[in-house]
Design a protein that fits this description.
The two termini are 25 Å apart. The chain has two domains: 82 residues, no CATH class; 56 residues, no CATH class. Helices cover 63% and strands 0% of the residues. It contains ten helices and no strands. By secondary structure, it is mainly α. The chain is globular and about 45 Å long. Helix 2 crosses helix 7, helix 3 crosses helix 7 and helix 6 packs across helix 7.
Length: 174
Amino acid sequence: MAFDGFHLMFPQKEIGYWSQQYPVDWDQQALLAGKKIREERNFSRSNLEIIVRWKSQRRAGLIAKNSSDEISDALDLALRAREPRSAFAVLEGLRGVATPVASAILTAIDQERFTVIDYRALEALGAPNSQPDLNFYLDHYFPECKRLASEAQVSLSTLDRALGSWSAKKGTKA
């Protein structure tokens, strides 16, 4: 099935409203763990697990199959990567990390440079059946999120929260 584009499921002028509906405690711990990775260079398993649990409880158990050295190396290399594809690639080398989880990890580390791709965001963009792999993220999803955020004059994190909130309250998935 060919990708036929995005369609924001609510008026663009409501991005601020939907962002404000986002529960502040949903991502607080994940963003703190991301800050520790970015600012303190704390590449610990516990920081990674906090971020992974934020977006996928199911994936959290798979993270345990990675050694502490693998986790530390992957986080260090992803943080130093100049190109998004490189940052994603190193994280996707870890067990339990595919593009949606890698996007959550990178977003927790740097909300100005990345945004989360997940079923909620895709649903709010009218593309619930899209396959969120790396090429889709880089070629379609991320450019669309940057465009929407720019047009609405909001940050990527504000847009991300709006998409997630809209889907949680109005969407079809539980």
